[in-house]
Specification:
Strand order of the largest sheet of chain B: 2-1-3-4-5-11
Radius of gyration of chain B: 22 Å
Number of helices of chain A: 14
Largest sheet of chain A: 2 strands, antiparallel
Distance between the termini of chain A: 20 Å
Helix content of chain B: 40-55%
Order of helices and strands of chain A: HHHHHHHEEHHHHHHH
Structural class of chain B: alpha/beta
Oligomer: heterodimer
Strand content of chain B: 15-25%
Number of strands of chain B: 12
Number of helices of chain B: 10
CATH topology of the largest domain in chain B: Rossmann fold
Structural class of chain A: mainly alpha
Number of domains of chain A: 1
Shape of chain A: globular
Shape of chain B: elongated
Order of helices and strands of chain B: HEHEHEHEEHEHEHEHEHEHEE
Chain lengths: 313, 335
């Protein structure tokens, strides 16, 4: 119990220093460039965090159990192209729901193989990465353009100053926070990553909880795919390559441990916003693309290093 | 028992998705890629049938898929056997694919090199067999090939540049969206072409610092960033149509469709549809996968029939605007 307390305090501390880093970054950005604090740019920042945000949240669930989901980028492609393709014949909400459902199905298969068959998550989801990418191409090897402009609503419209997609992300993060911190299932998921055997002995159905995390990841990746297709207005089977890396980076920056058992929804949200902020600033400063890649990598390492030093203190 | 059940569910699930996909694909894509295999078998190649290899460096983009499909369809239509390989962007895999094709006794090979700069090992292996190899789209920097057919990317860029410069009448601000480092020499040539015209015409250029990665979602993101920083853009040029389609969405979302017009490259079906619709997508340069595939196939057959062919052939890339788009737009096109 006391150990638990200490841990909580420490994670609060980390969040505190994180907030400070953020505020500093924001002030630097706002004072040194004219275009950062404009409505357009802030809206861009919100819109451009949507995909990474949804993927990172799903990834967090899986990482908490000590797993990993490398297939999310491919699920984005499959869900998007199915939704766009089906919208030609079906009502748009149904088409989109089927796209998302395809994501859940992918997560179900991943989860089954990991939880029930005890295969290594890395291997299972790596195989899924190529299988699902292939399925997206099987469905349509050319880009699909939805003809009904209703398809564009979810990714394009705003309610007040907030893009609908961003509101969805905020809602999903809030739900996930409640799920992980206020429900037995959520706490069990975190505990599984810490000590699977102890959780099993406590009478928790471990495989079922692990399965659920992969299905959540598939669901959120499917949702991200549908929203992305809606935002771009065209669904491509090639979209989403290497998206899983950004999602994993966001989780790790947010304090998640790839060994499982540690990580938080708020931290992950911080990681997502920080990544988007880095991209946005490097672009606004006109940093050349190759240097953007170099700097982004270095910043990620620096943040994780700073975090670890703090953890060890 | 439980395990079996799980496995069954999993398998069903995967096949369910796959089956649903392929059946729908048939509905929407019955444009005739494989259905017309042997109907006109005797035309063209003087009656001789060949075994042809179509080696792709990547099938990860509609343009490359279009080239490959076209060669496959042309070949089958003339009664030939066409073996298609996909190296998935791996140069070593391209070489071993070519070796596999040679082992299967092909009479000639078409290589679609995508962004690859050179493939000396593959070309050497083909040379040793003494069979003809036609490069399509990408001309390798080194190595011995029989013939190359492809576009002049710099000329396509210049063409777009001339359109933009004429339309703006000597002043204005134009953004350039680049694809990325991987394809760099194709993109570079296109941007070089645009630049060479616009810089001389007193037009201000803004090159986006980030890459659009040749995709619509990438083009959308880069354009959003450009719009946040530049309020006074008059036009945008993208190194391919895919990115322009994303950029067009970003411009529409920002309510600037009246202010900013778009110039692309490729002649992708969706872009032609936009040009036809008469919005702010005004011009593209045709770098059409079907035309490229046709040219490559014809060249290979010419060589296989013992004819002498030009070594390097530039496939013309006509400018497409609203005035002539109907001559080029085919809703059932593969690209």
């Amino acid at each position: 119990m006391i150990v638990q307390r200490l841990r909580d305090d420490r994670s609060l501390l980390i969040n505190g220093s994180f907030v400070v880093a953020f505020v500093v970054l924001l002030i630097v950005a706002a004072t040194t460039t004219d275009s950062f604090m404009t409505d357009d740019n802030i809206t861009n920042l919100m819109k451009q965090s949507v995909t990474t945000g949804l993927l990172a949240l799903g990834m967090l669930m899986v990482i908490l159990t000590g797993g990993i989901d490398l297939s999310v980028g491919s699920v984005v492609a499959l869900a998007g192209i199915m939704a766009a393709g089906l919208s030609a014949d079906l009502p748009i909400p149904l088409a989109m729901a089927i796209g998302v459902a395809a994501g859940v199905a992918c997560g179900f298969v991943n989860g089954m193989l990991v939880a029930r068959f005890r295969l290594a998550p890395f291997v299972v989801t790596l195989a899924a990465l190529t299988t699902i990418r292939g399925l997206a191409y099987v469905y349509s090897e050319t880009p699909v353009t939805p003809t009904d402009i209703g398809f564009l609503w979810i990714g394009t419209e705003s309610i007040g100053p907030f893009p609908v997609a961003t509101l969805i992300v905020v809602a999903v993060f809030a739900l996930a926070w409640v799920f992980l911190t206020r429900t037995g299932a959520g706490r069990a998921i975190i505990a599984i990553g810490g000590n699977r055997e102890a959780v099993r002995l406590a009478g928790v159905n471990v495989p079922r909880h692990i399965l659920v995390t992969y299905m959540i990841s598939g669901f959120l990746a499917g949702l991200a795919g549908v929203i992305l297709a809606s935002r771009v207005g065209i669904a491509q089977p090639s979209v989403g390559v290497a998206f899983e890396l950004n999602a994993i980076a966001a989780c790790v920056i947010g304090g998640a441990s790839l060994a499982g058992g540690r990580g938080s929804v708020l931290g992950t949200l911080g990681g997502v916003v920080l990544l988007a902020l880095i991209d946005n600033l490097l672009t606004l400063y006109d940093v050349q693309s190759y240097w953007q890649q170099v700097l982004k990598g270095l910043i990620i390492v620096a943040v994780v290093l700073a975090r670890r030093t703090e953890d060890e203190r | 028992m439980r395990r079996l059940l799980a496995l069954a569910v999993a398998v069903l699930c995967v096949f369910g998705v796959a089956a649903c996909g392929s059946s729908d694909d048939k509905d929407s894509g019955s444009s005739g890629s494989s259905g017309t295999a042997s109907t006109t078998a005797s035309e063209g190649s003087g009656g001789r049938r060949f075994k042809i290899g179509m080696a792709n460096f990547t099938l990860g983009a509609p343009y490359f898929i279009g080239i490959s499909k076209t060669v496959e369809r042309d070949g089958q239509r003339a009664g030939n056997e066409v073996l298609v390989t996909d190296a998935k962007g791996d140069a070593a895999a391209l070489t071993s694919n070519v070796e596999d094709l040679l082992a299967q006794g092909v009479d000639g090979i078409v290589i679609s090199g995508g962004p690859l700069e050179a493939a000396p090992a593959a070309l050497n292996a083909i040379k040793q067999k003494g069979i003809p190899v036609v490069l399509v789209d990408r001309k390798f920097q080194s190595g011995d090939y029989t013939s190359w057919v492809g576009p002049d990317n710099e000329a396509i860029g210049r063409q777009d540049g001339e359109y933009i410069s004429e339309r703006l009448g000597g002043s204005g601000k134009v953004a350039i969206i680049r694809g990325g480092p991987a394809d760099n020499s194709i993109g570079l040539a296109r941007t070089e072409g645009v630049r060479s015209v616009l810089e001389g015409a007193g037009i201000e250029l803004v090159v986006a610092p980030d890459f659009g990665e040749w995709s619509s979602d990438g083009g959308l993101r880069v354009m959003e960033n450009l719009l946040a920083k530049n309020k006074d853009l008059d036009a945008v040029f993208c190194e391919n149509d895919s990115m322009c389609l994303g950029a067009q969405k970003a411009i529409r979302d920002a309510g600037k469709s009246e202010q900013i017009f778009i110039a692309g490259v490729d002649g992708q079906k969706e872009a032609l549809a936009e040009i036809r619709r008469g919005g702010n997508y005004e011009v593209t340069g045709l770098n059409d996968a079907v035309t490229m595939g046709d040219a490559a196939f014809e060249r290979l057959i010419e060589l296989l029939d013992g004819g002498q062919a030009e070594k390097d052939t530039v496939v013309p890339s006509p400018q497409i605007t609203r005035a002539n788009v109907d001559d080029y737009y085919d809703p059932n096109s593969e690209f």
